[in-house]
Design goal:
Layout lengths: L3 E4 L2 E5 L5 E6 L4 E7 L1 H14 L2 H17 L11
Antiparallel strand pairs: 1-2, 2-3, 3-4
Amino acid sequence: MQKVYLGDAVYAETDRFGALVLTTEDGIRATNRIVLEPEALRALIAALKTDMDAEDYLERMEQITARAAASGPAKGSDGES
């Protein structure tokens, strides 16, 4: 898979071995990198399924995002301390 933007500065792609590679990027370079081999990805998916189904998860995340957007920028997000 070619690199795909997921949102919140997170990108996903697969490496030549079939692992899912998640990176966060600051516009210049990758600042964090997580490589999930197929077994680890299956375990993550299983954990999410055990906790809640995908639709419930997505609905919850949308609600959290909407609340965060309504409350305005987080304190210090403008670069000030």
